[in-house]
Structures are given as structure tokens and as C-alpha cells.
Amino acid sequence: MAERIIYLDNAATSFPKPEIVHETVRDFYSQNGVNPGRTGCDLAINAEQMIHETRKQFSAFFNRSLIESGKEKDPNRLVFTMNATMSLNLIINGMIGPGDHVVTSMLEHNSVIRPVNHKVREGAEATYVVPDAEGYLDPEDIRKAIKRNTRLVIINHASNVTGVVQDLNSIGAICREEGVPFAVDTAQSAGVLPIDMTECHIDFLSFTGHKGLFGPTGTGGICVADDAEIRGTIYGGTGVRSAVPYHLEEYPYRLEAGTQNLAGIAGLNAGLTWVENKGLNTIYAHEMSLFEILQNGLSDIPGVTLWGTQNLDRRVATLSMTVNHYDASDVGTILDVDYGIQTRTGLHCAPLIHQHLGSVPRGTVRFSVGPFNTVEQIRTAIRAVAEIASDRP
Fold it and tell me: Per-residue pLDDT for the chain (393 aa), expressed as one digit of tens each?
């Protein structure tokens, strides 16, 4: 079954993973699968060393200009979580309280929308900035939304619905000028596009491991700028200074508690190593070359509607479409059952951008290209959609 599948749902999770990820998870966990930081035995030291090296690896990955200038980035401010959703909850809950104001956008995933709305229900305020017709935010609209009590601006770097990529440099510069911390959700862009926290004035960068970074599911994290501050909101064991009655304030413990996902972090290390060896530009060029074929092919099919921008600049290889006279979920089922093509249908946990586009209530069919897709797979997908559309002209 797996051999005949054409997987075009990489925005949900990348598949397949590079073989080095599978090998690293298996080998490291079988040889060093103990609790890091809880004892002084060799196996525990090996596990803790791997985690620390991965912190350094990701700190450098998201702070290229800082490292290249000869400065250091505190690796302990690279905090591991289960996923981007947990990371975003930690950021929002650690920065926003009653009476505070947060600026975000209609492009966001529910991992931002829902925790922000919970904060509003508890007495905070929120502004959802509206993008233009193609899904791009005007950075000056971010500035206009900032108020005296604004404590955070949090923006989705790349849309999981339309693939549009926001101008982090301009938004970050405005946040720095206005003295407001800037958080970025990179769930769709980490490992796909270069992101530099220093150049973009990012205070908190949330990432997930299982998409463009090719790590296992259940991995992710936050990279906290060295001059940024955030409240801790989870408490428990750290493996060190156990007699202290309150959770430790120093990083990474401020935002971490309990036993780490050792196998997952080992796989995350291998995934990022694979990305860096392959090269961001190489991966992106391959994906976008296939995406251009896909977008052009789908746009030529009578009865097919593409939602969002068709611009090939400032985007990732994700698009949403519908077919006339079909529910999006039915198209997805036909593609899966009859053609072995896996996509994602519905509102994609991002209801506000669907409202903005007009694709509610049923949503769209989303195609998202990955580095292991081929030209023939893309052409097969185009032919499949054309056949589906021709059945109900």
C-alpha cells in the first residue's frame, strides 16, 4: 500500500522521513535510552550530551547572523516541547494576562487562535489583523494595531492553508521600534526557509519537529532570544536542585519540566542534520519547481478553483483548491480511495483565513509538496483532479 501512495500532505507532517532519522532514533534509544540529567552514569551523561548538542544545533540554525558575527547564543534558551501547539501555549500563557493586549492575525492556526481566545475570556484583549485579498499582511497594519497595553505580537510565518509567507523582517522591525515582544509560529517554515531571529528581531520562535525539520512526531520547541523574558507556566521535576520548593527560573528549566522525549530529540537532531546537509535552498527549489507544475496544471482544469495567491514568490509549496459541485471532503476521499493520493481537506485548523477567503463552511482540498515527491507524482495528481472535475462539469 505505502509504495503506491502519492503523499501530498507534507503541511500536516512530512512523509517519508529520511532514513537517517529512523536509524538515529532506533540506534540512540536502544543504546542510550535512559533518563538524562537524573544520574551520573555514563548512559545518562551521553543522553544529556545529545540533548545539549541539539540545543546548540537549533540555536545556531535560527541565529545564523549572530553566530557568523562571532557572538554566542545561549543554547539553554532553546527549549524542547512536544510540538508547536505546546510551544505557542507556553509563549501566550507566559506573556499575556488579564488587561494585556495581543496582536495576531486572521492567518493563524488554532494553536494561536484558541489560547488567545482563552486569554480574552480571562480578561485580555486581542486584535486579529486582516490580510489583503491574497493573504499577505501589511506590516504597517501591525503597527496600527499596537496599543499601550500590547504585550505580544504573534504571527504565522507561512500559512498552512495558502502557503503565503509574511515579511518577518519588516514586522519584527516595527515590533522592536514599538517596544513589543515579537513571537513567530514557524510550523510551516522551519526547515523550509531561512529564519534569522536576530535579523528579524524575533523574541520567541516556535517550531515543530515533524514537518520541514523531518523529526519524529511529538517534538518541537521554542528558541528564546537572549534578551527576552517570559514567565514559566509549567512546574515539576527538573532532575537538578530537587530541594528547591519552587520551579527553577533559569533556562531551559523555566519552560521545561519532566522527562524529555529522548528518542524524539535524537531524531530531531538527525532531521536537522539532514536538512543542513541537503541545503535549504536545494530543498526549497525542488519543492517549488514541483509546486509550479501542480499549480499551473490545476489552474487549467475547468471547474477547479484555487484559493489564495498564485504568486510563486514569498510562499511555500502549499495550495488550497476546490472542485465545482463537490464537497472538499468528497474530493479528498476520491483522491485517496481511487487514486492513492493523500491530501488534507476541511478548514485545516485555521478557520479565520477560510472566513477571509470565503471558503467556509466546508473548506478546501490542500496539496502540500515535499522533497521526496516527483514530477510524475505531481502529473498524476493533476490528471486525477481533472478526471474528478470532468464527472460533474
Answer: 345 899 999 999 999 999 999 999 999 888 887 777 656 677 878 888 999 999 999 999 999 999 999 998 999 999 999 999 999 999 999 999 999 999 999 999 999 999 999 999 999 999 999 999 999 999 999 999 999 999 999 999 999 999 999 999 999 999 999 999 999 999 999 999 999 999 999 999 999 999 999 999 999 999 999 999 999 999 998 888 888 988 999 999 999 999 899 999 999 999 999 999 999 999 999 999 999 999 999 999 999 999 999 999 999 999 999 999 999 999 999 999 999 999 999 999 999 999 999 999 999 999 999 999 999 999 999 999 999 999 877
Q: Are 345 and 332 in contact (CB under 8 A)?
A: yes
The structure's pTM equals: 0.95
Cell of 120: 480574552
CA proximity to 116, closest of 103, 129, 107? 103
The domain limits of the chain are 6-17+279-390, 19-278
What kind of architecture, by CATH, is found in domain 6-17+279-390? Alpha-Beta Complex (3.90)
The CATH fold assigned to 19-278 is Aspartate Aminotransferase; domain 2 (3.40.640)
Which of 112, 180, 117 has the alpha carbon at shortest distance from 143? 180
202: closest CA among 232, 225, 170, 177? 225
Which candidate, 21, 20, 24, 53, places its Cα nearest to that of 36?
A: 53
